[in-house]
Specification:
Blueprint: E1 5-12, H1 17-26, E2 42-49, E3 52-59, H2 65-73, E4 76-83, H3 87-96, E5 101-106, E6 110-115, H4 117-120, E7 124-130, H5 143-146, E8 151-159, H6 162-173, E9 181-183, E10 188-193, E11 198-205, H7 209-218, E12 223-224, E13 227-230, E14 233-237
Parallel strand pairs: 1-3, 4-7, 8-10, 11-14
Antiparallel strand pairs: 1-4, 2-3, 5-6, 6-7, 8-11, 9-10, 12-13, 13-14
């Protein structure tokens, strides 16, 4: 089993206005509204960035897990989706570790398993195996034509015990944590000390970072250096 790729990051927000703001500030293409997320009491917008994806989910039901997430700690980083090249081995690994799979699906073009956030910590984690490897069902039809240039470089998770959480995620993916970091095939996951388990930052290598920062200021978003705060997440621009 090779190191996983980071394919999709998800923000839980109170309104799809967050998606509209991201589209405008980051100059993204049209989003895909996935009707399948209604199963989880959500509406969403999925933006393609390179061959990765930035998703905003908005709860539509009081008992939706995303609603509980927002009520507990506010809007913020909700889910991270990783691509594996060996779903069978990954599922066997997480089952052996006692990490519950709360949702699994096997379709002709993709297999996916959501891991229980109480067991893995930090966020809802999904591990998916698309077929073929470069495809991505969750991006919707024609996502390549709608994709904006860029890529995710990292994600940051806060937790009271960064070493323990880094080790748990490492065991899940068959990786060894290196000083509170996990090096994936194409990005890095950082674990830092904070009051609660929470995904707090997404790193994006994206063209025209100066123009993006200017648009963020026009939208009255909090900015600092090359960082923009929106819906409980810091977007760190590496471009």
């Amino acid at each position: 089993m090779s190191p996983p790729r980071l394919r999709q990051l998800v923000i839980a927000a109170n309104s799809l206005d967050t998606a509209d703001t991201l589209k405008s500030v980051l100059s993204l293409g049209e989003p895909f509204p996935d009707p399948g997320v209604a199963e989880f009491g959500l509406v969403n917008a999925v933006f393609a960035i390179g061959d990765q994806f930035l998703e905003v989910v908005v709860p539509t039901k009081d008992k939706a897990p995303a609603r509980r997430f927002i009520d507990r700690g506010g809007e913020g980083g909700y889910m991270a989706i990783f691509q594996t090249d060996d779903m069978e081995a990954l599922r066997a690994r997480v089952d052996g570790l006692g990490i519950r799979r709360v949702w699994s699906i096997d379709l002709p073009d993709i297999s996916a398993s959501h891991l229980h956030p109480a067991d893995i910590g930090g966020a809802i984690v999904s591990v998916d195996e698309p077929r073929p490897a470069g495809s991505w069902r969750w991006g919707g039809p024609g996502w390549r034509e709608r994709s904006a240039p860029g890529r995710f470089t990292h994600a940051v998770l806060e937790t009271p015990d960064p070493d323990a959480l880094a080790q748990k995620w490492g065991l899940t993916f068959g990786l060894t944590a290196d000083r509170q970091r996990l090096f994936l095939a194409d990005s890095v996951i950082y674990f830092t000390e904070g009051p609660a388990d929470r995904m707090t930052e997404f790193g994006i290598d994206i063209p025209d970072a100066d123009k993006i920062m200017a648009r963020a200021v026009e939208k009255d978003l909090p900015v600092e250096g090359r960082s923009i705060s929106i819906a409980g997440i810091t977007l760190k621009l590496d471009g």
